[in-house]
Amino acid sequence: MRIDIISIFPKMFSAVLDESIIKRAQIKGKLNLFIHDLRDYTLDKHHKVDDRPFGGGSGMVLQVEPIYRALAAVKKKIKGKSRVILLCPQGKKYNQGHAKKLSKCTNLIFICGHYEGIDERVRLHLADEEISIGDYVLTGGELAAMVVVDSLVRLIPGVLGDKNSLNFESFEGNLLEYPQYSRPAQFKNWRVPEVLVSGAHHKIESWRRVQSLKRTGARRPDLLQKNKG
Ligand SMILES: C[S@@+](CC[C@H](N)C(=O)[O-])C[C@H]1O[C@@H](n2cnc3c(N)ncnc32)[C@H](O)[C@@H]1O
User: Fold this and answer.
1) Which pLDDT tens digit goes with each residue over 114-129?
2) In the chain, where the domains are located
3) In CA terms, which of 61, 148, 166, 175 is 20 to 30 Å from 20?
């Protein structure tokens, strides 16, 4: 997969995207990631990317022109089709199902907004979809892009060392994952459930299934309803 991210704060990405699974995905050749500074696509000497909103009001708005130019330049480098995603609090709320769909794409381009937002013409004419990572307002789309990229890259086949770990993860089959424990079996007077150290694999499997159902019922009954529907 190829991912391109357009932002006015490109330096924000290295802390997250040059580490851990995303770094490994790049080393393994599963991911080609490119971060583009929107200011590189301006024509004036001050590299201006924003202006005041028409009609008045507070703050600045990212202009359509540099975004148009950045997209055109990025698309030229991409072979085949690409999907343009605008990070936006007014977009469709992101979830694991959405991450799965995106993980099957070949080319994704993310546009990160900032300030008061982005000129509406970017939504109307340049973006294929808008994604919100939740009902709150971030300062910019950079953190949202990192959340989306992280969650979809780990779903690309071959990225995670143990592909089985995806089958038992939260939200798989609309369930939350069972509780996890590791060594020591006892710390202070907190013991791990006996069944987990029994070595009886069938019993462990059914304990985990029951825990997963109980936990989902207690914390996310809405997910269980989806299984019924
Ligand atoms: C301060 S916000 C603009 C909010 C906008 N004035 C509004 O009320 O809808 C600046 C940028 O942060 C990003 N952003 C903020 N919250 C987000 C969220 N929940 N999900 C995705 N992106 C978000 C978007 O790219 C947005 O253009």
Assistant:
1) 999 999 999 999 999 9
2) 2-153, 168-228
3) 175
What CATH number does the domain located at 2-153 have? 3.40.1280.10
The reply to whether ligand 1 has any atom less than 6 angstroms from the CB of 90 is yes
| 36 Cβ below 6 A of ligand 1 | no
Mutate to test the pocket of ligand 1, among 58, 67, 88, 142 (most ligand atoms within 8 A of CB): 88
How remote is the CA of residue 92 from the centroid of ligand 1, in Å? Answer: 12
CATH code reported for the domain at 168-228: 1.10.1270.20
Structure tokens, 192: 């791990």
Distance between CA atoms of residues 25 and 7, nearest Å: 22
Q: What is the pTM of this model?
A: 0.95
Residue 165 binned pLDDT confidence (cut-offs 50, 70, 90): confident
